Amino acid sequence: MSGEVVPRKRRRAPALRRLFRGAQLELRMLILLVLLSFGLSLISPYFFTLSNILNVMDQSVITGIVSIGQTFVILIAGIDLSVGSLTGATGIVLGLSFSVLPVPLAILCAILAGGFAGFINGFIITKGRVAAFIVTLGMMSVGRSMAYVLSGANSISQLPESLGELASSTVLGVPTNFIVLVVLYAIAWYYLTFTKGGRTIYAIGSNVEAARTAGLSVDFYSILAYVVSGALSAVAAVFLAARILSIDPIAATGLELDTIAAVVIGGASLFGGRGTIIGTFIGVLIMVLIRNGLNLLNVNPYWQGTAIGSIIVAAVLLERFLSAREAARRDDEEEG
Amino acid sequence: MSDAGETRSSLLSAREVWKAFDRTQALSGVSFDLAAGEVHALVGANGAGKSTFSRIVSGHLACDRGDIRLSGKPVQFASAREAIRAGITMVTQETSLAPDLSVLENIYLPELGMGGRLSWRRLYARAQGLLEEFGQGGHLPLRRPLRDLSASQRQMVEILKALALDSQVIIFDEPTASFSPNEVDRLFDVMRLLVERGKALVFVSHRLEEIFEITDRITVFREGRDVARAVPTGDMTPTELVRLMVGREIADIYAHGAAPGRATSAAILEVEHLATAPRVKDVSFAVHAGEILGLAGLVGAGRSECVETVFGLRRIEGGAIRLAGKPFRPRAPIDAVRAGIGFIPEDRRRQGLVPDFSVRENLLLAHIGRHRGFGLGYERHQGDVEHLLGELGLPPRILDAGILTLSGGMQQKIVLARWILMRPDLLILDEPTRGVDIGTRSTIYAMLRRLAQRGMAVLIVSSDFEEVLGICDRVVVISDGADVTSIPSRYLDVEKLAMFAAPRSSADATHHVLERLVHAYPGAAYWIFVEGDRLYCFDLLSAEADPGLGFARGTFPRIEQTMIPQALLQRAASFAAEADGRQTLLVPIRGHRGHDLGYVGLTLAPGRATPDPEQVRRIVLAEPGRAEDAAMRAAG
Question: Which of A200, A203, A329 comes nearest B21 by C-beta?
């Protein structure tokens, strides 16, 4: 090979092609999303009505917020199984705080609690070198248990009216909570793409040894990912509570699976280092649309789990097939 | 292009082999001829197509077009298994072994895939037979799990795996990358034995001196074409070979022409009695500004662990490190980076590269670690990056390519550039040119020279003794986790370096001889090498703390500076007396291939009775094998 001068004898791809090459996966998923919407609109005339669209937006808020944190964690090749029960537990913390604190402080209190739980996750995983799966599985159990203990196994209702504003208000016809969601995604996208911390998170997931050897703060940013995940679980709890002005200790059960599915559908690799926050956003919308569609089609709720599970596995299988082909090509190129 | 190959009958012949990956043309019609009973070198720069070709011939890849014949019959293998069945095996460099299985199971791994019942007892006997046959008896513990073995022992297992298959054609893909000189000799013995039995061997290597020692004919690939085909090795000179490989003249790859850096008295790094479990026991050395210092030794001697400790990758368990005179105790690499140390790790894939990142982000990775802002601050280095790429001979447009699309040599340049960008006071390189072709190597060496001239301290860990002697101003030899000596490299050659690097553990045969001598006679026993007017002392044992000989282990004084000049000048078969009454006997020792290993000496204090020289000689020569075998074992 003309090794010294040119890396590959490859013609420069046109600018548009190169852009798509970088975001190939997001593009594939976006096409899937569009096709899905189109199909649903054909099947159900109700799909493209304003009220259903608002409904889809509303439904994507909780899963969407938590999926940001899950993306951070999966990018460093971790996993956070505790997000669902932390949403439940921090919701109870929120509910209890309202009786003694003004609304903003109560929200802060819940977020701090979530962040603290995330810190414990991250600290044990990073410093104790225990598998993320195990530690967050434990936290999942502890979180749900704390929710029951703190609440006495009763739901807390009649939360302050001002909290309800978060769920019911709109700006220019768009629900406030959806705007918050989009803003959070914009911040996360900026952070992961353009800051030292964001690139460190990618580097950790891609090759932790190389990251450490290059002098990156591996431990700090690994823990940070779990703190973000825990804190965002609490943010999700706030919006969950705002919806019906009541919070239940069993709230958000199973949320971890939806968020992991959304992140993976969005193209992230469970081995870390690969995936984008935009992909996750598309993944969340796909998850919500599938649920929405199944409801619109009046699919028996008992069958919905089977449908969703199959779709997730099929989507990821397809993705693995495509990326394996890409990886094989890349490996071959290196030889020789 | 020579067609000398046509005169011999070809066992394996390839004509016009083409292979493209995606849009990359890896092979553009190469031809190759291999005869029975020869060692055939296949050489070329990184990315020349050697590996692709080897993998096609051994069935790992299919070619796009081309004609491959084995004993005259056209073959087209669909898998490596088919190739093995036809009698072609490849010994790969990236070992394809199972660490949890025993050595025995690994050697017979292909048999596990076949039907029928396995008889472990029979396999064990066969493996023993194989080891004996190739003179490896006692070097490989067959029942131990593979994970316990050193890199070089694993490579030997990989080779034995191929021997167990009794293939007609064996392709060795850089088999010596993890070998010390003694182990290379041992491998060459095996290869010669195979050739005697009419096997055909392909030898892929970057080390020129090995190519000229072992191979009969040479085929050179460049940019996917064969630029020299089956030229008898005797008709080729090293300069000519390098020119064929890189397509241009490289007069002196070690950049000797450049003035050596001015080593000032300012020590940048001082390491004192450093200890880190499990391999580093007691290492002391210092690196000065403007100096290139080599840490030489065998694989497993503890050199990598030592520099990893300095860089904060391992915990310090004993001793001290001083950086620019101040105590330094890094807890993580970031401490070392902030203190002005750069580190190019041994395993580029595992510790060096972030595979999902572009070249630019890989290049700026250390910057990200050191950067204190919230953003990226990439733009700050824009000018430096372009300048540096130019200096390393890389075009700026590769910056946006994925790092894995680059060849190994270019990747290594990027990792090097990553640290140069940080302008460290001390740059540590662990095996900087492993698997890197000669063109890239010369660029890297020239770069290191320039950095040293600018006052940077450079510390290189290398198992390639030629490289150590070529690039370093001074060499510190590490053996068994302790520093043995510190010598300006102009006083050394590969042989002496190998003897310094031989292990000093009591298991070592020569050391054992010295122990027995000191036990039998009240005096000092030592292992030395005499060359010109200089003595090199590799080991010394004495009943007294200081035997007052004027030399000690690891020193290399002039003969007249020692207390035994008479004995050293005479080197007689009997005891020689000095003016002060000391008596000395020197017994020459040789390696198992008959080469000179210097002398074992015994010096008695004045006034002692003269022992029988024959008796001393018997003790010395009672141990067969000596240093060579010990070096082999020590690598484990």
Answer: A329
CB contact under 8 A, B333 and A197: no
For residues B90 and B60, is the Cβ–Cβ distance under 8 A?
Answer: yes
> Percent of chain B, pLDDT > 70?
90
Distance from CA of A265 to the nearest CA of B (A): 19
Residue type, position B307, single letter: V
Spatial separation of the C-alpha atoms in residues A26 and A267, rounded to whole Å: 7
**Per-residue model confidence as pLDDT tens digits over A126-156:** 999 999 999 999 999 999 999 999 999 899 9
Q: How far apart are CA B610 and CA B267, in angstroms?
A: 48
Domain at A156, CATH number: 1.10.3470
Q: Which position has the token pair 């097939």?
A: A321
B18-27, B80-89, B328-337, B606-615, range with the lowest pLDDT = B18-27
Cα(B27)–Cα(B511) distance, integer angstroms = 52
For A85, residues 6+ apart whose C-beta sits below 8 A from its C-beta are A139, A140, A141, A142, A143, A144, A147, A252, A253
Q: Report the alpha-carbon distance of residue A193 to residue B606 in Å, rounded.
A: 78
What token pair was written down for B498?
């190998």
Residue A39 belongs to a domain: no
User: pLDDT value at position A130?
Assistant: 95
Query: What pTM does this model have?
Result: 0.79
Task: Give the SS3 label for residue A84.
Answer: helix
Residues of chain B neighbouring A323 (CB-CB closer than 8 A) = none
Both tokens of B525, joined, read 């026993």
* Rounded Cα distance, B93 and B573, in Å: 47
Domain assignment of residue A12, yes or no: no
- Answer yes or no: is A219 within a domain: yes
pLDDT tens for each residue of B405-447: 887 888 999 999 999 999 999 999 999 987 787 888 889 999 9
Q: CA B132 to CA B114: how far, in whole Å?
A: 26
Q: Is the CB of B356 less than 8 angstroms away from the CB of A202?
A: yes
Do the chains contact at B49 and A200, CB–CB below 8 Å? no
pLDDT tens digits for range A207-235: 999 999 999 999 999 999 999 999 999 99
Q: Where in the sequence is the domain holding A121, given as residue range(s)?
A: 57-296+305-321
pLDDT of residue A5: 40
Other Cβ atoms closer than 10 A to B12:
23
Strand order in the sheet with B326-327: B326-327, B318-323, B267-276, B280-288, B482-488, B474-479, B292-296, B457-462, B426-430, B341-344
Count of structural domains within chain A = 1
Mean pLDDT across B562-587: 87
CA distance B400 to B414: 13
Is A95 part of a structural domain of the chain?
yes
pLDDT value at B21 more than 70: yes
Hey, which residues does B318 pair with through a beta bridge? B275
Nearest chain A CA: its distance from B401 CA (Å)? 9
Q: Which residues of chain A have a CB within 8 Å of the CB of B398?
A: 7
CA distance B436 to B465: 16
- Chain A residues in contact with B407 by the CB 8 A cut-off are 1, 3, 7, 334
Residues B260, B207, A330, A211: is their CA dihedral positive or negative? negative
Which residue among B22, B55, B352 sits closest to A329, beta carbon to beta carbon?
A: B22
Which candidate, A24, A62, A59, places its Cα nearest to that of A259?
A62
